[in-house]
Amino acid sequence: MTWMAHSVMVSKGQIWLANLNPIKKNNEVGKVRPVLIFQNDGLNESDYPTTIVLPLTTHLVDEAQPIRMRITKREKLTHDSDIILTQIRAIDNTRFVEYLGCLNEEEYKSVKQNFLEIIE
User: Which helix (H) or strand (E) holds 116?
Assistant: First the structure.
């Protein structure tokens, strides 16, 4: 099976600015906003046309784990943000706009642990 090539090369744990519009329902996260790459690098390095992401928001909610996880600003991510683990989605690779930064290994491990707590 042949897939359309990536428009950009993304890696697990990176934060990218992505265009999430249009949205389908009022409770879905839209806009151009940062997202966390939540897909493994085997798939990221293939020509598969979509990538699984978790959106970020600057509308912070304290003590909201496991459905949200706070990360501090870094690199081109200019504000502290919450990763919204309940809004997981696959987006077309053409929606990626700009690389913003990356989680460290411990942060990414915490995202996975929180996600597993939600789904198990």
Answer: helix 105-119
This prediction's pTM:
0.89
pLDDT above 80: residue 5: no
Q: Which two tokens stand for residue 80?
A: 């502290």
pLDDT tier for residue 21 given thresholds of 50, 70 and 90 = confident
Cβ(14)–Cβ(38) under 8 Å? no
17, containing H or E segment:
strand 14-19
- Per the CB < 8 A criterion, the answer to whether 102 and 76 are in contact is no
| β pairing state of 50-57 and 81-84 | antiparallel
Name the amino acid, one letter, at 87: Q
Which of helix, strand or coil describes residue 69?
strand
